[in-house]
Amino acid sequence: MQKINLTEKLSKFTAHWSPKLIAELNGQHVKLVKFRGEFVWHHHEHEDELFHVVRGRFRMEFRDRIVDLREGEMLVVPRGVEHRPVADEEVCVLLFEPAATVNTGNTGGARTVVQPDWI
Amino acid sequence: MQKINLTEKLSKFTAHWSPKLIAELNGQHVKLVKFRGEFVWHHHEHEDELFHVVRGRFRMEFRDRIVDLREGEMLVVPRGVEHRPVADEEVCVLLFEPAATVNTGNTGGARTVVQPDWI
Can you list the positions of beta strands (E) in chain B? Predict the structure, then answer.
């Protein structure tokens, strides 16, 4: 039962697209991730995902629209909905999602992180 | 699939100790709440709770210690652990917890909110 300081946790990694675990509760994971550039199009069969911008901004692309997200804003992407995060500059994002969630969803590939590290 | 702006949501209510719903995913609720003063001692039988300070500061009291929490810090209180949030000045907190969670847990009483409003 230690408090978690987001600034301190964000100072512990630099890699993009590689989520890090900071908390677990009720079968859900809380992760921090840094985005820069374009991710892969993917969806999650069984998991809804929450994206909360801690620092910076990015856009969530969907097949039919784009949602711009800035610091202090969040978005829930429901299961089954194809999406692709894109960040022109580095952005720091907090994720809430089921523990079973894999970052690249149905798409897989080189950026897949099956078991994120705790930081 | 609308983005959620925390500042805008926080402007929509003033009551203390009355959580408001802002998102739902995977059977979990995301809520905003404003604390000021002392809450009731309670625990939750079946739910872990995450407290994330959006603005201000408060302390989480446990029977054997106190954890001070400031903006950008979070704490997970595991199920079964008695706790009491106390805020000397108003603080705005994001909660992430199972949809079934009731704010006063096992204690009940006048401050109980069984079904929080969506804002």
Answer: 4-5, 20-25, 28-38, 49-55, 57-61, 66-70, 73-77, 84-98, 117-118
What integer pLDDT is reported at residue A68 of this predicted model?
Answer: 98
Query: Are the C-beta atoms of B34 and B74 separated by less than 8 Å?
Result: no
Q: Is A117 helix (H, G, I), strand (E, B) or coil?
A: coil
Separation between Cα atoms, residue A87 and residue A8, nearest integer Å: 22
Cβ pair A48:B30 closer than 8 A: no
User: The pTM is what?
Assistant: 0.96
Whether A1 sits inside 8 A of B77 (CB atoms) is yes
What integer best gives the mean pLDDT of chain A? 97
Q: How sure is the predictor about A101, in pLDDT bands with cuts at 50, 70 and 90?
A: very high
A118: phi > 0 → left, psi -120 to 50 → alpha, else beta; which? beta
Contact with chain A for residue B49, Cβ under 8 A: yes
Structure tokens at B38: 């002392």
- The domains located in chain B, with CATH, are 22-103 (2.60.120.10)
